[in-house]
């Protein structure tokens, strides 16, 4: 009887202890990845990707200011998963990502920040420059944390690949990464 209980307990606990994607569908893996990103838990998010490089853009937020900014932005991200399609060792999951519209936030903030920057542009005072940078950071944080901050919704297909460890978010997910950061990459592509 003890042996039977041990087998039952092990069978029940093993998947929880493993914490990996073996046996999970592409849609479940996409959900786990996006949930970790939403919480700015980059270490957890990296367990759901084919390569650690996939989350490198998001992991750049290791400095305290960057991490604070990432948590503020990604915490406002929402997602809905749609249809899953499998084709051999590749799969896609449709997703609707709603995130802060970084382009509109930056455009709105720049009006005020540029005026402030011009006021200190010709100053040789490093303290003034540092203070201006701090004010600009705070201005962006306030704009991001504004409950009425503009948002954008992007429809993407999340690419996944089957690895020896199960389904993982693939490296080739530029649309997904762009949607997660509020299409901020498109601001610089259009300049």
Strand content of the residues, in percent? 15-25%
Structural class label = alpha+beta
Number of helices: 9
User: Strand tally, please?
Assistant: 4
Order of helices and strands: HHHHHEEHHEEHH
Largest sheet: spatial strand order: 1-2-3-4
Query: Mind telling me the C-alpha Rg?
Result: 21 Å
Distance between the termini: 71 Å
Q: Categorize the overall geometry.
A: elongated
Which residues form runs of ≥5 with pLDDT under 50?
1-21
Taking the sheet with the most strands, its summary is: 4 strands, antiparallel
**Helix fraction bin:** 40-55%
Mean pLDDT: 80
Question: In words, what does this structure look like?
Answer:
The chain has helices at residues 2-18, 26-38, 42-46, 56-59, 64-74, 102-121, 126-145, 174-180, 184-189, and strands at 78-87, 90-100, 151-163, 166-169. It has nine helices and four strands. The N and C termini lie far apart (71 Å). Strand 1 and strand 2 (90-100) form a beta hairpin. It is an alpha+beta fold and 191 residues long.
Keywords:
single chain; 191 residues; alpha+beta; four-stranded antiparallel beta sheet; 9 helices; 54% helix; elongated; disordered N terminus
Secondary structure layout:
Elements: H1 2-18, H2 26-38, H3 42-46, H4 56-59, H5 64-74, E1 78-87, E2 90-100, H6 102-121, H7 126-145, E3 151-163, E4 166-169, H8 174-180, H9 184-189
Antiparallel strand pairs: 1-2, 2-3, 3-4
């Amino acid at each position: 009887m003890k042996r039977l209980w041990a087998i039952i307990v092990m069978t029940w606990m093993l998947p929880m202890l493993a914490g990996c994607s073996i046996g999970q569908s592409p849609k479940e893996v996409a959900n786990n990845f996006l949930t970790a990103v939403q919480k700015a838990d980059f270490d957890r998010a990296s367990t759901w990707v084919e390569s650690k490089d996939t989350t490198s853009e998001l992991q750049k937020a290791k400095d305290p200011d960057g991490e604070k900014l990432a948590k503020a932005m990604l915490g406002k991200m929402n997602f809905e998963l749609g249809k899953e399609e499998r084709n051999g060792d590749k799969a896609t999951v449709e997703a609707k990502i709603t995130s802060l519209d970084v382009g509109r936030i930056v455009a709105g903030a720049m009006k005020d920040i540029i005026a402030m920057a011009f006021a200190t542009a010709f100053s040789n005072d490093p303290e003034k420059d540092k203070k201006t940078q701090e004010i600009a950071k705070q201005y962006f944080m306030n704009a991001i944390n504004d409950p009425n901050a503009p948002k954008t919704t992007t429809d993407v297909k999340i690419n996944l690949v089957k690895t020896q460890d199960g389904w993982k978010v693939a490296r080739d997910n530029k649309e997904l990464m762009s949607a997660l950061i509020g299409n901020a990459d498109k601001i610089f592509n259009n300049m």
